[in-house]
Design a protein that fits this description.
This protein is an alpha/beta fold and 474 residues long. 39% of the residues lie in helices and 22% in strands. The chain folds into two domains: 269 residues, Aldehyde Dehydrogenase, Chain A, domain 1 (3-Layer(aba) Sandwich); 190 residues, Aldehyde Dehydrogenase, Chain A, domain 2 (3-Layer(aba) Sandwich). The strands form seven sheets. It has a seven-stranded mixed beta sheet with strand order 15-18-19-14-13-21-22, sandwiched between helices. A six-stranded mixed beta sheet has the order 10-9-8-11-12-24, sandwiched between helices. Helix 14 links the parallel strand 21 and strand 22.
């Protein structure tokens, strides 16, 4: 299948040259045109024209377009799920879950489009405001650049595109070059749902070229990016004066208190560590287990890890498929090997089979090892014993990342102690850091990023406040 760029309501571009592969078999399943500088310029110009149309589009029409998009996704459920499984290597059961979530994301956006409003301001609260009536409203920013990652090629794009449309903006979308098929199919759905020409534009290419051309363009008012901290930092250097939302990952910690339901904790940690081959920004990576729960938790976690079915993601039985490419699989193989040379023990897993890396449990790790200090983005998790809850909280918080943290306990005092000491974007109780529903505020602090996703909160990030003060006259 050949795909071209989508600009100003038309499929256009040079002959497709970028090959997209099935991440398990290595078979080429599609080819894409790659955007030139002229294509990027045309896409931004198209979005700029469409932004004026979108800003005037009545709220109920924007809401209807988003609702129709959700309906069309439901009608094409299996096609989207199998596409995600093939091009991203995500197990089919989790690919289907992603389609479910994207349907919900567009549905929430349709609802939130009707709730964008301001409020009155009592200007006469001070003497200088006497005789004035004031209110503010939210207006669309204009052109939104949405740069998506490979690990959720549908739902994390939906988290950028849906609120942008709800707010009355136009979008230039750049999906990851390894997983653009889903984005192209979503563009087809949006057009069929009634989105005006130019309101969604699709360009494909390298972040170093296409991505940098997009974020540095002065016609762009907002950049929403999900990816690595290194690229996020580069974006902040290039954007100039424009709004930016960055979701940049985590070294997701989980704390296991001795009063926790250890069976539940082991099962949830296994799913949280290994689904999508651990290639999730909130994948479980560091598990701090308070004595005397360490040994029984470790036993249950290893058993749950070994129960994960590894193989072709299009197989209904499979839990863990390949990593996105061989380079990433070799990288985590090197990280684990380096940790082993420094004294870490592999309890289970620790083997690579082509692009597949087996679910891996590590112990005897230290804070300076890459598997602890940096975002692994792979199917590995380390279990660390702690003398008390205070030590577990301290170690969980000893990171430059601060997206989400999970805590398993039945003690409400421990819950509030952790809330006060762990300055993460999300604190999840009796589940892992991998928990997310799509309407909650989602984002991190420090190296984990800037701003928040979640439909209501993303819409706020994609609008500007316009203050209106009216001097009352006789």
């Amino acid at each position: 299948m050949e795909y071209k760029l989508f600009i100003d309501g038309k499929w256009t571009g040079e002959s497709p040259s970028l090959e997209i592969t099935n991440k398990y078999s290595g078979e080429t399943i599609a080819s894409f045109s790659q955007a030139s500088r002229e294509d990027v310029d045309a896409a931004i110009a198209s979005a700029q024209r469409a932004a004026a149309v979108m800003a005037q589009l009545p709220t109920h029409q924007r809401s209807t377009i988003l609702s129709r998009t959700a309906t069309l996704l439901q009608e094409r459920y299996e096609d989207f799920a199998t596409t995600i499984a093939a091009e991203a290597g995500k197990a089919l059961k989790f690919a289907r879950a992603e389609v479910d979530r994207a349907i919900g994301t567009f549905t929430f956006a349709a609802e939130e489009a009707k709730r964008i409003h301001g409020e009155t301001i009592p200007l006469d609260a001070i003497p200088a405001g006497e005789g004035y009536f004031g209110f503010y409203r939210r207006i669309p920013v204009g052109v939104v650049v949405a740069i998506g990652p490979f690990n959720f090629p549908l739902n994390l794009i939906a988290h950028k595109v849906a609120p942008a449309i709800a707010a009355g903006n136009a979008v230039v979308l750049k999906p990851a070059s390894t997983t653009p098929i889903t984005a192209a199919k979503l563009c087809q759905v949006l057009v069929e749902a009634g989105l005006p020409p130019g309101a969604i534009n699709l360009v494909v290419g390298s972040g170093r070229t296409v991505g940098e051309w997009l974020v540095s363009d002065e016609r762009v008012s907002k950049v929403s990016f999900t990816g690595s901290p290194e690229v996020g930092k580069r974006i902040t250097e290039l954007t100039g004066i424009k709004k930016v939302t960055l979701e940049l990952g985590n070294t997701s910690p989980v704390i296991i208190a001795p009063d926790a339901d250890l069976e539940l904790a082991a099962q949830r940690c296994a799913v949280g560590a290994y689904y999508n081959s651990g290639q999730v920004c909130i994948s479980v990576q560091r598990i701090y287990t308070q004595q005397p729960a360490y040994e029984p938790f470790l036993e249950g976690f290893v058993k749950a890890s070994q129960a994960m079915v590894v193989g072709d993601p299009l197989d209904e039985r499979v839990d863990v498929g390949p990593m996105i490419d061989l380079k990433e699989a070799k990288r985590i193989e090197d990280w684990v090997g380096e940790a082993q040379r420094d004294g870490a023990q592999v309890i289970t897993g620790g083997q690579r089979q082509g692009c597949v890396y087996l679910p891996t449990v590590l112990t005897n790790v230290t804070a300076d090892m890459k598997v602890i200090a940096e975002e692994a983005f792979a199917p590995i998790a380390s279990v660390v014993p702690c003398d008390d809850f205070e030590e577990a909280v301290r170690l969980a918080g000893a990171t430059d990342y601060a997206l989400q943290v999970g805590i398993f306990t039945k003690d409400i005092n421990r819950v509030f102690q952790a809330m006060d000491r762990l300055h993460f974007g999300g604190v999840i109780i009796n589940d892992t850091a991998a928990f997310r529903v799509d309407h909650m505020p989602y984002g991190g602090n420090r190296k984990s990023g800037i701003g928040r996703e979640g439909l209501k909160f993303a819409i706020e990030e994609m609008t500007s406040i316009q203050m209106v003060a009216i001097r009352l006259t006789n």
